[in-house]
Amino acid sequence: MSFADNQYRSPLGSIAAMAHADDRAAFITKTYVHLAGAIALFVVLEAALLGSGIMQGLMPMMMGSQFGWLIVMGLFMLVSWVANNWASSAVSPALQYMGLGLYVVAEAIIFSPLLYVAQRVAPDAIPLAAVATLGLFAVMTAVVFITRKDFSFMGSILMFGGFAAMGLIVVAMLFHFSLGPIFTYAMIALSCGYILYDTSNVLHRYRIGQHVAAALALFASVALLFWYLVQLFMSRRD
Fold first, then answer.
1. Which residues are CB-contacts of 158 (< 8 A; sequence separation ≥ 6)?
2. Helix, strand, coil shares of the chain as percentages rounded to 5?
3. In angstroms, rounded to a whole number, what is the distance separating the alpha carbons of residues 173 and 72?
4. Is residue 9 in some structural domain?
5. What Cα–Cα distance (Å) separates residue 35 from each residue in 100, 161, 173, 174?
6. Whether 59 contacts 82, CB under 8 Å
């Protein structure tokens, strides 16, 4: 999921959909290789965070109050904006990789309290959510690649849906009420929508050379889906 406007300002090359077949195939391959690398880095970082004992110190700071978590969310949004801009750099491949790496690190940190709790109250929720995430991602990807449909029309719908969801989350945190399972299912659906949208952009909107930015957008959508699937499987255990 990316809240960027996705104007694809990069002059690096032609739009992938209009490029030579070999160049287009190479771009798509690079995008998904980088996505796999981002997921692998996320897993390594999460394992390090959860296995080091550092979470015992981070949990009170991040989850001690609703205002602490609001600050964490605000910082995450700021870091996400910076990371997206770096990853979209048209002049510096090194900056693109720094953006992707920064975003993965930020996701690992913000995920750590959720996975820390899941390990203790519903340890099977994490592998189940991981399998379900990969399965839904594969289905959404197949839909786009088989139909070749351009889902860019979903951009404004997803943007407003994302902002509405963020508003509900903030209100729930401030006034101490649960959003419930319906919200979780709605966010899973929203995440799948983002995967359709981002995958469609890989085929139709990104330019050759923007594989790092494309991988970041896909990783963000996959991470959002994984977040709410973990919550779903945890709630079922309760």
1. 1, 190, 193, 194, 197
2. 80, 0, 20
3. 13
4. no
5. 10, 24, 32, 35
6. no
b/e map 202-214, b = 16+ CB within 10 Å = bbbbbbbbbbbbb
Nearest-CA neighbor of 1 among 167, 236, 224? 224
A 10 A CB-CB count for 32 gives 16
Structure tokens at 185: 């299912």
Indicate the number of domains in the chain: 1
211 in a structural domain: yes
Q: What is the pLDDT of residues 84-119, one digit of tens each?
A: 888 887 778 889 999 999 999 999 988 988 898 888
In a domain, 46, yes or no: yes
Strand, helix or coil for residue 207: strand
Domain with 116, as residue range(s), is: 16-237
89 in any annotated domain: yes
pLDDT in tens, 20-72: 778 888 899 999 999 999 999 999 999 988 887 776 666 665 665 666 667 77
* 180-186 long-range Cβ contacts below 8 angstroms, 24+ apart: 181/232, 181/235, 184/228, 184/231, 184/232, 184/235, 185/232
CB of 89 closer than 8 Å to CB of 96:
yes
* Residue 15 φ/ψ, nearest 5 degrees: -60, 140
Per DSSP, what are the bridge partners of residue 15?
A: 207
- For the record, the structure tokens of 56 come out as 């015992």
Q: How far apart, in whole angstroms, are the C-alpha atoms of residue 50 and residue 87?
A: 27
Report the predicted TM-score, pTM, of the whole model to 2 decimal places: 0.86
Distance, CA of 155 to chain centre? 15
